[in-house]
Structures are given as structure tokens and as C-alpha cells.
RNA sequence: CGGGGCGUAGCGCAGACCGGUAGCGCACUCGCUUGGGGUGCGAGUGGUCGUGGGUUCAAAUCCCGCCGCCCCGACCA
């Protein structure tokens, strides 16, 4: 392929819009261009990388017995209303109306559409198991798209759905996909880790996320070095710790003035206590009903856990007016003592606190020397927070370490959640109607490519892992007065291509420095430099991009 | 959705405070030059200054609205 015939608009300067490495380098290397926030064009070079990732996925999934199909991007609201997700998905669902004012959406995922297909076409246990996948553009109106291909509103995703006769079969399908994912990300040259993920509101028995380890990752992962446990910090389960009875304090609670001190930071500094001694009280509305959540000042509420605990479809922070009405105090002074109108849930760690500080439910007042269980009794204690460094591993109780990762894949046991709602059944051997047991499996194709850049680059540019590089070899034809260089380059290109090697030939009339720099930026694994000097010696040079090792070839 | 920032040529930016009709570097075109890590010289092309309105003799510049983009936050108790 001649570089002069390909649109590869490399940039010398970093575009101002790009913050992280992968976004910056993919823009600079002329692989992507932005059309709107979170919506990109894949230029020829970028598309080749995307296609490489897709081919790896196809090969591994076909190997594992999955079959490729292609579903529509637009789907009617009725399907989504059947499962309740038309409302549940909220603003993230791109919605549109057709000319008859009928509601449609652009698919963020396709459980409804595939389940609709399967319930109509699959009737017998003989047709199971089945696993369908597609590679397709997805739409999610993200609250905050960012980082180029990392979090787009329109993005390419591989989604797969397995259908089995029973739980055991579904687990087997799940395991196969898990193995396929391991192989896929391995072949993409990624340093990744499969981590346990919570099954969340969707229910089911298993879920794993595939995380590429990178400091720029948006997800926190809790890992245990002792037992190899790894889980998303949002989802890592935290156990209740045994109560230390000796720690009970005889001190009576007392109300102290804290004028204008609202935040955890302000109050703890003002009173001279540690944030872990402060019990903050947050008021949420769960499906409209207010609920007070109590947890330590140094901990963060995990809204997924909270939502799950309350069984709520919608969970939002209560507004200031609601907080004032319920607590009788301005925002910043809410506390669990004397709160009667709302149910109170507290994190497990709250139970451990002795002589804590809580809001006074009165302006400019906090209680000190508060002991949970004595001075207030929550309706229940539960695991309500994100894991932090040092928390006990749920498996072996050793301290957890927090690292960052990019979620490139997710596998999920769905059970019968969708098949029940959509009445997807089959007849078993005894002729009985049974619900099909499902699993779903996603891979972010563009995100995987971006993650690869995050892990494979240097100061000069990208260092593509060979399996997903846009080309295998980049031939740089340098200055050519005699005409011999061009001829030699064309000849070499032909030979390599005949051998099945993908070649990009830089035939542009550019200075050597420009070519070297562009080649390093684009990051094709091998560069072959052909120049007049070398040719007179009967030599060309082969440089490995990653190591910069140069070999002279006769 | 809240906060901050930005929007001037394809890219990176100056000009704005102090109003007088737009400039620099790179890129692009042509010529010469150079030819192994972003050559040098010369001549050019390219801009409704995001958009709508207002103030003014005059607006990129001052005022108001809107749109777009980026970053942070959405943990405030």
C-alpha cells in the first residue's frame, strides 16, 4: 500500500483537545478525527486497527462455537418496554421517533432484540445451546464522553448472547466465552486481568470484567496479592468485621456548636477528629422515597450497592429542600440521631465507630461522642461503600491493593432475567415449557485499540503490538536521485506482500526526518529503510519500532 | 446537571485589557535548494474571527443571548 495514496494526516503538534496518551497519539497519527463529542471518524489507518481487533475476536469466537449475525441499530420501543429498560435506561438511551411518531432507540446493547429473535425461532432443547454475536456500532448518550475512543457516545462493540437449556449449560457457555476472551486479549497484546464483578441489579450468578492495567483507567480494581482475588472496587464485597466489645465508650454524647462547618474536612478540622471518626449522613431518594445513609467520613458511598440493597430502580441524592425538611437543618448538618421520618441504613464500618461525630439536625450543631447502637439504631447495617486500599480481602482477609484499569470486556451470566420477561421458552425432552438461560458478553473494540496504545507507546509515538498493527512493515524509501531506491522499494513491497505481509510504503517526496518521525508516530512494528547509501552497499536496514534495534540486511 | 476554561486559516497560537476592519509558526501550492532524524530561500493559497443580537461613525476586541468543545466535579451532609 502506497502511503501517498492513503489519507494519513499526521500532526506535528498535540491537538489541544486530547488529554490522555492514546487519544493524543491516535489523533496525531492520523487514525481518528472527531465529529462531535464522543463521536469519531476512523481514518484508513485507524480502521485497519479496528478491523484487526475484530478479526481476532471473530476467530476466537467462531472457534468457541459462537455464530455471527447482525442486528439492526434501531429498534422499536415496545421491545424495551417489555423488559422495563425503556424507562430504566434513562437518558443514556438515544431515542428517536419515526414519521408516524413511533418511538425507537439506537441500540446501546441488544438483549431485547436477540431474545425476541430467539423466542420466535427457538422452540426445542435440540436447538440449544446457541451463542450469537455481532460486531456493531452502539450508541450510549454518555453523561460525559471523554478520552477519544475510550468513552464514546457512538462506539464499536462486539456483543454476544448465549442461550442454554439450564444453569449448568449456561455456566459452560460462560466458561467458554471467558476462555475466548482470555485468548482475544492475549492476542491483542494487552496486559490485562480478569476481575470479579458484581452481578448488580441484573441478578444471576457470575460476572467478570476484563481490565487492561493502566494508570489512566477509569475503573479502580481491588487486588489481593495473597490469594489472587481481583474485583472492581465498586463491586468488591466487603464483609462485616467482628465487633470489639472492649471498645465501647462510657462517654455521653453531647451537642457542640460547629458554626458554618459543613463538609467532612471542615468539621473534622474544627473538632480535631479524624475523618474516620465522623459519620456522615447522606440523604437519597430511592424511587422517590427518602432514605438516610450513614457511613464514615473517609469512605465513599457505592450507589450500586445501595441501589441493590434498597431494591430501587432510581436513586438520586435528595435536593437541599428535602434535606432541610427531613432534618430540620440546612444541608451539612444532617445526622442519624432523632431522624424518625426516614429509614436509616449504615455501612458495616459504622458499627465499629466509638465516640464518633454526627450532624446535629440543627444549624451549626454536631453531636460528639456518639456510639452507634446506643445513640442511634440504623434500620440495618450493610456493605454500602467502595473498597479502599487496605480493606480486608473477602476471600482471605489480607489487605487489598487498588490499581487502575480500563474495562475492555465484560462477561455476564444473565440467568432467566430476560427470558422470563420476554417469555423466551423452549420445550425440554419431557415436552415441558422452560425458560432459556442466558448469558451476555461484550468487548469494546475501539476501547481495546485505545487501551493497546495506552500500554504500548514511547515519547515518539505508538508501538503497536503486531497482531493489531495497521500494517506489519513500514518501508521508508528515502531520497532517490538515481531512481534505484523507488524501484528497490517497490520490488521489496511486492515480495513481502506476496509472502502475506502487510506493507505500507512511504513513497512520499519528503525529507528523511519527516519519514522517520511519521513512522515512529504511526508505530508499525517493523521499519525497513531503503536509501541510496545502503543500496550501493547492497543493504537495507530493518528497525524494530519497539526496541529500535537496527539490523542490516543484504 | 454544577464549576472552570476555550472557540481567530487544516494544526498550534498571538491580537482583546486600551474598538480603527487580522497576524505568527507549522501545514498546503509553485520555483529553486537540500537529501539518513521535522533543510534553506523566495513567491503564493487559505479566515462569515463559533453564532444571533446590542452599543458605536467603526466590533475579533465592549455588552447580552445561544451553540459547540475540553477539563474537573457530580461525595454535599
Largest sheet: 9 strands, mixed
How far is it from the N-terminal to the C-terminal residue, by CA?
23 Å
Strand content: 25-35%
How confident overall, as mean pLDDT? Answer: 89
- Based on CA atoms alone, the radius of gyration comes out at 29 Å
Number of helices: 14
Overall geometry comes to: globular
Q: From the helix content, strand content and strand pairing, which structural class follows? A: alpha+beta
Q: How many strands appear in the DSSP assignment?
A: 31
Question: Low-confidence spans: pLDDT under 50, at least 5 residues?
Answer: none
Instruction: Please estimate the helix content.
Output: 25-40%
Q: Can you give a write-up of this model?
A:
There is one protein chain. With 554 residues, this protein is an alpha+beta fold. The strands form eight sheets. Strands 3, 7, 8, 9, 10, 11, 12, 21 and 24 form a nine-stranded mixed beta sheet that branches. β5 and β6 (103-106) form a beta hairpin. α2 runs antiparallel to α6 (167-187) and α2 packs across α11 (445-455). It is globular, with a radius of gyration of 29 Å. The chain starts with 20 loop residues before the first helix and ends with a strand. The mean pLDDT is 89. It binds one RNA strand of 77 nucleotides through residues 9, 11-19, 34, 36-37, 143-144, 146, 262-264, 267, 280-283, 299-301, 317, 320, 323, 327, 329-335, 359, 476, 478-481, 510-518, 520, 529, 531-534, 541.
Amino acid at each position: 500500500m502506497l502511503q501517498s495514496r492513503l489519507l494519513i494526516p499526521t500532526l506535528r503538534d498535540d491537538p489541544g483537545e486530547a488529554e490522555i496518551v492514546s487519544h493524543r497519539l491516535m489523533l496525531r497519527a492520523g487514525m481518528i478525527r472527531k465529529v462531535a463529542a464522543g463521536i469519531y471518524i476512523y481514518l484508513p489507518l485507524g480502521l485497519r486497527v479496528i478491523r484487526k481487533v475484530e478479526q481476532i475476536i471473530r476467530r476466537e469466537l467462531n472457534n468457541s462455537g459462537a455464530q455471527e449475525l447482525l442486528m439492526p441499530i434501531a429498534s422499536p420501543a415496545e421491545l424495551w418496554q417489555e423488559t422495563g429498560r425503556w424507562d430504566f435506561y434513562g437518558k443514556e438511551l438515544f431515542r428517536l421517533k419515526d414519521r408516524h411518531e413511533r418511538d425507537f432507540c439506537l441500540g446501546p446493547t441488544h438483549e431485547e432484540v436477540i431474545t425476541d429473535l430467539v423466542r420466535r425461532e427457538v422452540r426445542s432443547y435440540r436447538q440449544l445451546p446457541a451463542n450469537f454475536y455481532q460486531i456493531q456500532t452502539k450508541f450510549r448518550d454518555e453523561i460525559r464522553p471523554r478520552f477519544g475512543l475510550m468513552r464514546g457516545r457512538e462506539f464499536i462493540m462486539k456483543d454476544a448472547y448465549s442461550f442454554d437449556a439450564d444453569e449448568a449449560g449456561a455456566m459452560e457457555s460462560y466458561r467458554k466465552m471467558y476462555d475466548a476472551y482470555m485468548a482475544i486479549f492475549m492476542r491483542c497484546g494487552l496486559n490485562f486481568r480478569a476481575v470479579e464483578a458484581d452481578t448488580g441489579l441484573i441478578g444471576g450468578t457470575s460476572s467478570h470484567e476484563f481490565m487492561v492495567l493502566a494508570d489512566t483507567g477509569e475503573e479502580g480494581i481491588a487486588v489481593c496479592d495473597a490469594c489472587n482475588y481481583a474485583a472492581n472496587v465498586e463491586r468488591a464485597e466487603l464483609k462485616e468485621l467482628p465487633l470489639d466489645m472492649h471498645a465501647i465508650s462510657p462517654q455521653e454524647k453531647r451537642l457542640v456548636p460547629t458554626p458554618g462547618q459543613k463538609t467532612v474536612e471542615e468539621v473534622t478540622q474544627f473538632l480535631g477528629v479524624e475523618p474516620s471518626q465522623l459519620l456522615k449522613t447522606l440523604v437519597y431518594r430511592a424511587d422517590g422515597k427518602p432514605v438516610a445513609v450513614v457511613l464514615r467520613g473517609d469512605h465513599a458511598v457505592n450507589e450500586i450497592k445501595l441501589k441493590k440493597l434498597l431494591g430501587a430502580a432510581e436513586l438520586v441524592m435528595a435536593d437541599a429542600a428535602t434535606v432541610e425538611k427531613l432534618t430540620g437543618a440546612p444541608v451539612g448538618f444532617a445526622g442519624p440521631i432523632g431522624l424518625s421520618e426516614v429509614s436509616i441504613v449504615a455501612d458495616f464500618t459504622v458499627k465499629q465507630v466509638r465516640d464518633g461525630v454526627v450532624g446535629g439536625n440543627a444549624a451549626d450543631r454536631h453531636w460528639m461522642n456518639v456510639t452507634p447502637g446506643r445513640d442511634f439504631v440504623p434500620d440495618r447495617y450493610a456493605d454500602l461503600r467502595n473498597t479502599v486500599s487496605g480493606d480486608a480481602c473477602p476471600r482471605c482477609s489480607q489487605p487489598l491493593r487498588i490499581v487502575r484499569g480500563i474495562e475492555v470486556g465484560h462477561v455476564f451470566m444473565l440467568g432467566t432475567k430476560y427470558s422470563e420477561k420476554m417469555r423466551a421458552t423452549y420445550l425440554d425432552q419431557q415436552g415441558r415449557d422452560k425458560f432459556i438461560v442466558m448469558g451476555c458478553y461484550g468487548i469494546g473494540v475501539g476501547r481495546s485499540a485505545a487501551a493497546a496504545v495506552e500500554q504500548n507507546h514511547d515519547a515518539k509515538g505508538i508501538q503497536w503490538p503486531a497482531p493489531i498493527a495497521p500494517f506489519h512493515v513500514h518501508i521508508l524509501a528515502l531520497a532517490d536521485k538515481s531512481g534505484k531506491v523507488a524501484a528497490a522499494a517497490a520490488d521489496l513491497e511486492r515480495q513481502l506482500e506476496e509472502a502475506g505481509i502487510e506493507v505500507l510504503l512511504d513513497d512520499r517526496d519528503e525529507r528523511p526526518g519527516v519519514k522517520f518521525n511519521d513512522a515512529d508516530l504511526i508505530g508499525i512494528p517493523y521499519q525497513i529503510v531503503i536509501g541510496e547509501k545502503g543500496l550501493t552497499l547492497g543493504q537495507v536496514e530493518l528497525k524494530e519500532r519497539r526496541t529500535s534495534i537496527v539490523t542490516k540486511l543484504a
